[in-house]
């Protein structure tokens, strides 16, 4: 399968939070570091790199400065090294509660402190030397086993998660990383959590929480007993094995999860490639052949649709639409026009895609009528994490409001009805956007919310392609609040 950006490994960026809930920050002025920031922004993002000498040490590079954290023999720390040297090498010591201790490899001292009083001179570990890893990537992704080269997905029939899928197709391939008590849980698309013994549970209990470890740019998940998740047996069932050190079997890649959609034509049948290269609206159920991966071009904001058979929709002779293209080109790009709860697709020939009498799709219409309108349904976000321009969306403690600038996030539930969606929190409430800054009030979630203006965030909303949010469904929301 040609990738063309379809299966991109996410660059793992993270923040380090100290015992006073402040983030390690790299400043441009003087290349100094401190732990004063209360939230995770660009200056607080770091990347872990393996030691070029192939040892167990790692390098911490600031995403903001592009320079490396270093600790001198006198304990002074800075982030000014353009190229890593001996003082940039640290050992990561994972603690039972999920936090990290960073020890200078050449000098044997521990890194920690508060605000602008950071040093790497401690000879013993105290609370000031404990750091919590907070991922800075969007937490909804696909999980790929490095050793098996297979994707993890939910197996409802076997009541487990397994790494046995060739492609991350359909809703069952969605994995959400949930931050709980300084550790991470793996949440399946049906909202259950993966326990270390391979069972799925409804609550993020201690056996379903893991410490993240990084090795050569890959992820490993360590349970509370010090064992690591790995695919086991012919089925690739995901559970903690016997190993207390991560090898290739225990390593995973996180890949970006693009929106996957189904389209329903005016004949109330699903658009499909089941019959071959022709794209036709002739199916009564939504399966893999009726599911298309949707990508948005960042410059033109036009979309491509990729099929499970391995081809992009493309414009061919006489306006026909086939799923045969292996590369993105002008003929594979479609402009999406929102018409209430329906969409119209304009091809590169300037004409709209319509459903012909035999169900086949063709870009031959100059105007939009009933045969040119489709219901577009997002199928791989039954649960949703929202990210705005300033951070994630999260309930404000002790209030019926949501903040849109948080470093932590809440997971919302998504339901679909006739071209629109309803967003509900864990308590079942819907939401309504308020125009006063970055606050969102929780509403009653009743159907009457659909009558509100479509440019406000209410219980019912429409997904919109957004070039700035590639890989995650955007919405008909104000600029400050869009899913990331």
Automatic annotation (TrEMBL):
GO molecular function term, any single one: protein-macromolecule adaptor activity
InterPro entries (UniProt xref): Actin-crosslinking, Fascin, Fascin-like_dom, Fascin_metazoans
One Pfam assignment: Fascin
Keywords: Actin-binding, Cytoplasm, Cytoskeleton
One cellular component (GO) term of this entry: actin cytoskeleton
Lineage: superkingdom: Eukaryota
Cellular location(s): Cytoplasm, Cytoskeleton
Broad class of the protein's primary localization: cytoplasm
The Fascin-like domain, residue ranges: 21-133, 142-254, 266-375
Signal peptide: none
A single BP term in Gene Ontology: cell migration
Keyword Cytoplasm: yes
Family recorded in the similarity comment: Belongs to the fascin family.
PANTHER family given in the database record: FASCIN (PTHR10551), FASCIN-2 (PTHR10551:SF9)
Stated name of the protein: Fascin
Source organism: Ursus americanus (American black bear)
Gene name as annotated: FSCN2
């Amino acid at each position: 399968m040609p990738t063309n950006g379809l299966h991109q490994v996410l660059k793992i960026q993270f923040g380090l939070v100290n015992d006073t809930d402040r983030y390690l920050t790299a400043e441009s002025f003087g290349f100094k570091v401190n732990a004063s920031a209360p939230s995770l922004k660009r200056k607080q993002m770091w990347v872990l790199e393996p030691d070029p000498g192939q040892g167990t040490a790692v390098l911490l590079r600031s995403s903001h400065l592009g320079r490396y954290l270093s600790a001198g023999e006198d304990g002074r720390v800075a982030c000014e090294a353009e190229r890593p040297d001996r003082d940039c090498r640290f050992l990561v010591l994972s603690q039972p509660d999920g936090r990290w201790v960073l020890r200078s490899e050449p000098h044997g001292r521990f890194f920690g402190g508060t605000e602008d009083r950071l040093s790497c001179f401690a000879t013993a570990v105290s609370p000031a030397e404990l750091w919590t890893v907070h991922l800075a990537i969007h937490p909804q992704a696909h999980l790929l086993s490095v050793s098996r080269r297979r994707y993890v997905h939910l197996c409802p029939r076997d009541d487990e998660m397994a790494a046995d899928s060739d492609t991350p197709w359909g809703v069952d391939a969605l994995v959400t990383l949930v931050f709980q008590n300084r550790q991470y849980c793996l949440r399946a698309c049906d909202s259950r959590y993966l326990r270390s013994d391979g069972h799925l549970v409804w609550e993020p209990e201690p056996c379903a929480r893991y410490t993240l470890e990084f090795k050569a740019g890959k992820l490993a998940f360590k349970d509370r007993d010090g064992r690591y998740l790995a695919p086991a047996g012919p089925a690739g069932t995901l559970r903690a094995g016997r190993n207390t050190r991560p090898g290739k079997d225990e390593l995973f890649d996180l890949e970006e999860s693009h929106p996957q959609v189904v389209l329903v034509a005016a004949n109330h049948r699903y658009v499909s490639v089941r019959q071959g290269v022709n794209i036709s609206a002739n199916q009564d159920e939504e399966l893999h052949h009726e599911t298309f991966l949707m990508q948005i071009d960042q410059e033109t904001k036009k979309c491509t649709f990729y099929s499970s058979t391995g081809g992009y929709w493309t414009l061919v002779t006489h306006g026909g639409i086939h799923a045969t293209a292996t590369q993105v080109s002008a003929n594979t790009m479609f402009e999406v026009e929102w018409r209430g709860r329906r969409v119209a697709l304009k091809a590169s020939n300037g004409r709209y895609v319509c459903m012909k009498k035999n169900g086949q799709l063709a870009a031959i219409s100059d105007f939009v009528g009933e045969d040119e309108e489709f219901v577009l349904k997002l199928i791989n976000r039954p649960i949703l994490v929202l990210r705005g321009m300033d951070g994630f969306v999260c309930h404000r403690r002790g209030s019926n409001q949501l903040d849109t600038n948080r470093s932590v996030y809440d997971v919302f539930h998504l339901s679909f009805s006739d071209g629109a969606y309803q967003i509900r929190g864990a308590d079942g409430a819907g939401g309504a956007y308020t125009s006063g800054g970055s606050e969102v009030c929780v509403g009653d979630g009743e159907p009457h919310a659909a009558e509100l203006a479509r440019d406000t965030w209410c219980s019912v909303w429409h997904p919109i392609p957004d070039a700035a949010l590639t890989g995650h469904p955007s919405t008909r929301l104000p600029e400050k609040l869009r899913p990331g």
